[in-house]
Design brief:
This protein is an alpha/beta fold. The protein has 12 helices and 17 strands. The strands form 4 sheets. It has a 6-stranded mixed beta sheet with strand order 5-12-14-15-16-13, with helices on both faces. Helix 1 crosses helix 12 and helix 6 packs antiparallel against helix 7.
């Protein structure tokens, strides 16, 4: 059976939940038919004419971009003016476009986690938390002989995470009673007779956004025809979410040396930095794209330098006046670096879901700037 675009998007949305997108953003479907068959996916930072040409040449049916093609508001779709010309071209070529923008920035394993990892940051935390994951408690009653199977299914589906501990459950034995009625096909028991069965009450924690998948996995692993389970909302605050990361550098280094490392790691032709070149920095904040507005949050969290892109003149002056160093490696480089990691994560998640498609990263993308 052919893999449909919406199946791939469902997996992508587990990696970058739409609820993480900021209000002004336009992440999600941009162009295309969610039911269209897909054999090859291309990841790109932007949907440009060059990216569309590469998609056509490589038999791509779905582009997953970071920046939305339709972000600034669309008042007309004309074939002789952008972005309408690309919309026409994509439709004619049978290529869909889906964007994961600010939701990918803030997601676990997303743009900012990758940027932090590439710079070797340790003991990282979210730079600017804007929300926390909503949590539910899942309780299910299982015949004692099948408790292990159900626990494993819950863990594989993503339930039971508390911090860096996985497969967390609480189990309590008891007696379940039920009377199968006419028309039932009970796994245990006989129609019309009250049954008493030794059962295990399994409790675990689930992210609300993942609860549908977790419950489905539990139902498939459970032997009963009708499964007794409960979902309770929790007041506990889940993991913080939001843009940027902050953490410790592998070792204290002069600002100029860190800037050179950033240039090398992100393969930037040129970058700008501000501050005393000899100033030793031990704690750094990162925010891919345009993150200069978070410099005060970075300073409050003890960072001595902010690595980002698109630092404007007056913002640079404000940072320096406040004693905050910065490294501006550009919008493109600080986000493009995340695409290879996204390819690996998406390909693995698709394979795990039994969806067999090729995933590639656009090779044609370049910085929009030229330097003398």
């Amino acid at each position: 059976m052919a893999v449909q675009a919406k199946d791939i998007v469902a997996v992508m949305e587990r990696l970058a939940p739409p609820g993480l997108a900021e209000d002004w953003d336009n992440s999600g479907w941009q162009v295309g038919d969610p039911a269209a068959p897909v054999r090859r996916v291309m990841l790109a930072l932007d949907v440009t004419p060059e990216v569309v040409s590469e998609a056509e040449e490589n038999g791509v049916q779905l582009i997953i971009s970071h920046h939305p093609l339709l972000l600034k508001g669309l008042k007309s779709v004309r074939s002789d003016a952008p972005p309408g010309d690309l919309v026409f071209r994509l439709i004619r070529a049978g290529v869909g476009v889906y964007a994961a923008h600010t939701n990918l920035d803030g997601a676990a394993g997303g743009v900012n986690d990758v940027l932090a990892r590439l710079l070797g940051l340790r003991e990282t935390e979210v730079l600017h938390p804007v929300q926390h994951a909503e949590l539910l408690k899942l309780v299910v009653f299982v015949p004692a002989g099948h408790a292990g199977e159900v626990r494993e299914a819950l863990g594989r589906a993503g339930a039971g995470w508390i911090g860096n501990y996985s497969d967390c459950t609480f189990n309590l034995r008891g007696t379940g009673t039920f009377r199968p009625r006419e028309g039932t096909n009970p796994y245990i028991g006989t129609q019309g007779r009250l049954e008493q069965v030794e059962e295990v009450r399994i409790e675990t924690i689930v992210k609300k956004e993942e609860s549908g998948r977790v419950v489905q996995a539990m139902l498939e692993a459970h032997p009963y025809e009708e499964v007794a389970y409960d979902l309770y909302p929790l007041a506990n605050r889940g993991e913080p979410r939001g843009p940027g990361r902050v953490g410790l550098l592998p070792r204290p280094v002069p600002l100029a040396k860190l800037a050179a490392t950033v240039q090398d790691v992100l393969q930037v032709g040129a970058l700008r930095y501000g501050g005393n070149p000899a100033a030793v920095v031990t704690r750094a904040a990162v925010c891919g794209g345009s993150g200069a507005g978070l410099w005060q949050a970075a300073q409050r969290k003890g960072a001595e330098v902010l690595v980002t892109g698109d630092v404007r003149y007056h913002t640079a002056r404000d940072m320096l006046a406040a004693g905050m160093n910065f490294i501006d490696a550009g919008h493109f480089a600080t986000e493009r670096a995340a695409l290879p990691a996204l390819r690996e994560n998406l390909a693995a998640a698709l394979e795990k879901a039994g969806l067999h498609v090729d995933v590639m990263v656009a090779r044609c993308e370049r910085e929009p700037w030229r330097y003398l």
